[in-house]
Structures are given as structure tokens and as C-alpha cells.
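for the writeup, i need someone to sanity check this before i put it in the appendix. the sequnce is what the collaborator sent (i think, or maybe the updated version? ugh). structure was predicted straight from it, no edits. if anything looks off just tell me and ill rerun, i have time this weekend
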Amino acid sequence: MRKFKKFISCVAATALAVTSLVSGSSLGASADTTLITNGGPYEGDATYIDTYMSGVFSTKNSLEIQFKYDSVGTPSQPVAGEDGTIDPYYGYNDTFEFLAFDTGWGGWQKTIVGPAGVDITTNPDEKPVEGEVYTVEVPISKIASKLPEGSTLYGINLQTGGQLGTSVVSIVSLKVIPSTTYVQPAFTIEGKWNKGTASEMTVTPEDAATVIANEWNIQVNDVDFTKWTNPTIDVTVTYAAAQEYVQAEIMVPTGVDENGYPVYEAIDPNYVNVNADTYTFTTEIPNITTSFIAAYDACTVEKIYVYDNTAGNDDTISVTGLTANEVAENMGLAWNLGNALDVVDKNGNVNEKGTSNAKTTKKLIQAVKAAGFNTIKIPISFMNMIEDDNTINDDYMARIQQVVDYAYDMGMYAIVSLHSDGMSTVPGYWLNIDKTGQEFNQIVNKYAAIWSDIATTFTGYDQRLVFQAANELMNSAGNYAVPPTQTEYDNINALDQAFVNAVRNAGGNNNAERVLSVVGYLNNIDYTIAGFKKPTDETDNRLMLCVNYYDPSNFTLGGYEGGNNGVTEWDEDATYGGKVYMEDQFINISEFAKEMDMPVMIGEYGPADKNNIAQRANYCYWLNYYAASYGIVTAYWDNGETGYLGTALFDRTNNVITTNGSTLVKFIKAGYSGINEPTLP
């Protein structure tokens, strides 16, 4: 195993200096690594320029040097070396030399470089052209071949040629060119590192990366992720005591400062509040990155696992030509990624981490799939990310697409749902269904433009991607108990129609047959039955109706009734919210939708945690039992909160299912499958 404390500059017999491992290899702006730009001018025979350790080029194929003669002089005649041997006369072909040395600081045999096309062996009078840029590519294997048999290449010195003579030369650029065959292996870094003390860290496999575990952070250099799809870093740390607002983040180079030193910035700025426990933090990084820093405070870093996280990807799945009813049958159990892309702060700005949930990674979605869910619903608020032309901010749209791809690439169904923009209880909401006349027409135009942009972005996605028009559209008073007016009913129906038109008009066969989920007032079953009108659609049998179910709310939601945290027990026999009431509601909405040839989805449900896992499990069982009995798809609302009043099934820091989550999923599956209710563990 190769172990590193920190890199110490060394001076060997013929090596004048050694470049820090940060130099050259730490900035990954492209697949190439630029070592020198506009170097020189250089003069004099065998003038030292720089040293490059193996980590700089271990994952690469060749060194590409571009150089020019500032002035063309006369080459030196070769002289005897220390062993008495005399080199042949190379003349201008000995402009630069690469000297290889091994792990024992031996070797130092040279590979010479000269201007292409200038060969004094065939024409002694031929000279380089002053100012012309010459390009030469030298395979790393050629340089390494000069070492004695059995030696391992450890580094390369660059110097001017031993026969440069009176010429003056400059280096336009020196680059390391990626190998066409090398693929970065996954690797682990293990040890016991604490901030403030340089530590030993073991890399496995040992040549996969170079590690500097200094007193400030753990720096990982000389990696090549260009052939990876989703570079992912899992950092396992242990906190000896509870901590508040401590750094836990991965940083990558974004440029250099005025002195040429790399500048690192966090991929996902992350300061966490944690208990005394062991956590595994997951961060996805760009595949152009050639180094990164693990910056973790107030803990012991025990393991860093770096891998290409594509587990579960299946590009052979294609779903086309199905009706909405057939798609609903295929969806299986669904799960809501709540309190993520739907979060809006007090200023009306979207903020994925606004509730302190970790940034969503593919690893979380993999855990959701492993638990048995086949559909991911992704609630999204757009708010301040809507540009002046009513399109979506490019970076935000790219993030939405990335999260969709987590599920879609694994063969799952994904539902993109507009979430808080029409909820009057959320700061910054604009989708106001109380407006009339020109004011409402402007809202409809904005809403349609947003969906047109979304549909255009996802044109290439087949029927495994579903769109949902909105969620819990309500009057401006935000009063859940007040029935809607006819104007509010009509406006929601107009928005549903605008949604359908926008997607169908976006073009592409996938958008033409995409299943679209439409809604009624508040996604409430009774209000939907009272006022919903099915939109006209140019494509037959591609519409789905979405409602939410949180009855009785004093049990499922907590303090929404009576000004307290509600009740902890579900009264199965209650007139309102009991089992009979639940089944009747599902019968009513399924029959209502069936008359319009539309399947139904319960887009949200989920009883809050009040230290009452048995009651919650029982509720989830019967909700899914009745839903499945009437062909209704269910999507559990997971808000990522594992404590009191939370509904999380998954721990989003460690990306694993929780103990309570395992119990609830067991009951959800049993209910949806129609088998006997399980017993609690």
C-alpha cells in the first residue's frame, strides 16, 4: 500500500528541484493538463526547467511540447559524460531533453526533442525557422523505456538540450495528453485524519491517486474522471460530540490566483449540524476535475470512496405507445422527493437545501428504488428562476434535468410537478387563481410559456417521464376550509387546458403521447369532483387526474386542527377520516375519473411522525390497500425530516432507508399488494 503524509520537495543529484504535486495537475479545465504556458526564453546547454512527478502523467499517454526559436544560433559539440561516453552529434534535434528517473532516484537517461522537419543527419546546413512554432508529441512510454529494466518511472525532468549552443528558445505550451485507453479505477482512501494534524492515509489501489493529508485538509490529485459518467465521492466521518454548523464539503479547483496558485471552491457548500455519530456524506463532482479537496472539520475522516455511480442505469428500456391507464399500471409505488427542489425561502427564492436537507444525489434515488418504489415524483418550484421571457433559468433547468435523469436512467418513471408557484401560503407565489380578465390572461401566458420550455427541454424523454400541471392551487386567502368560487374552478380548468396545449404544441412524438397529470382545486377530492372539467386533448387517453389525501389532517399533519400537534392515533371508525370514509373517497374519485377515461394518482399522502409508528404503519397499509383496490397510484410524501412531525422514509445525509422507513415501506407494499397486514417488528 502506498501511504502519504505530505509531499516533501526533494533534491536529487541531477534534479535541481521538484514541483509540488499541485502544480500542473490540479486544474482540470479540460481533458488535457497544461504544465507550461509561454515559458522562457531559455538559453544554455542542459538548463533545468522543471520536474514532473508520476502523478502528473500516470493517467495520460503523451507529453506534447510546442516551442519556438527566439534566435537560431550554433549547436554545441557533444562532450564526454561522467562515464566517459560521448553522445552523437544531434545538433538542433537536441533542443529539449526529457530525463526519466525511477523510484530510487536513478536513471536520468534522456529523450531528446527537436524541431520537426529539421534533420542535420541528412542536411547538415538545415536550420530551424526563427519564430516558427514546432509541435512534438512524445509518448510517456518512450521516455520510461530509457530506464533500466525493472525500474518504475517516478518522474521526469525537463531541461534544454545538451547541444542547444548559442540558440535561445521558448516553450509555447507543454501539455499532458490523455490516454485513449486509460480508465480511472474507483479507489478508497483510509486512515484516521483529523483537522490540525497531518496524517497517513492509505490509497487502494495505490496508483489510482495521489493524496496529501496535511493539517488543513485532504487533497487528492492526479485523477482522470473523463471517462466516468457520474464521479461520486462518499466521505465517512465520525463526530465524537454533537456539532453545530461545521464544514463538511468537497472542493474543486476553479482557477488560479494572482500568484498562479489554484483556487478551490465547494461543489456543494455544506455546513452541517450533527450528533455524535458516524455519517457518510455524498458529493457528485464534474468529470473534468483532476483534483479535489475533502474539507471536514471537528471530526475524524475514516474513509473516502471515489467511484463512478451509475448503478442501476439501463438504457435499453423504452416505453411508448401506452395509454394513461397502462402507464399508471406500470408506475407501481411512487415516492415524493419533498423539501428539495420545491423549497422556497422567506424571500420567494427557490433553495434546494432550504430545509437543511442534503443536496439530492443519485445515491438517494438508488436507495428509493432499492426499497421497492418504481416512480419518483419531483415537486419543483420555479418562482425567481423564471426569466423575463418566461423561460426557466438555464442552470436551474439543468439541475432539474439532472435529478430527473437520476430516476429516468435507472428505468424508473419520473413525474415533474410544478409545486409552490400556485400555493398562496408560500412567499413569492404568482399563479393566482383569484385574478380575472387581462391579469389572469397574463398569468396563463406565463404559465404556458414555462411548460413549453420544460416540454421542449425534455422532448427526447419517452413515456417514463410524466408532467403534472400544478399542486394545491388555492385562493389568495390560503384558507383550506373555504370552498372555491366558480371563478376559481374555471381558472384552474383554464390552467389545465393551457398546460395540455403547451406540452402538445412543444413538438416531438414523445410530447404528443406523454401522459399529463391534471388537477382540481387544492388537489382535494371533494372540490375536484365538484368543479373539475377534463381538458380537451388532441391525443386520446393520455390524461391522468391527481389528488392528494391527508385525512384526517389532525392525525396526518399535526397542528393544522386545534392549534396543536394534533392526535397520535388514527381512529379507524371515525365518520370523518376513518377506514370507511377513506374507501368511500377513493371510490368517489375513481368513478368520477373513470367516466372521463382517466386513471387517478394520489400525489401526496403521509402521516407525520409523532412517535407513533404503529398508527402510521396501519394508516399507510389501508390507504394503499384501498387505493390499489380501485386502480389508484399512490405517491408517499417524504419531506426528508426524520424527527418529530417528519415524514421521511430515507436518511438523506447517509442515503439509506431509516428504521421507521423500513417499517412503513413494508406496510405500504403489503397494502398495495393486497396481502395481509404485517406485524410490527
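Residues 258 and 264 are 14 Å apart (CA to CA). The two ends are 44 Å apart (CA to CA).
thx in advance!!
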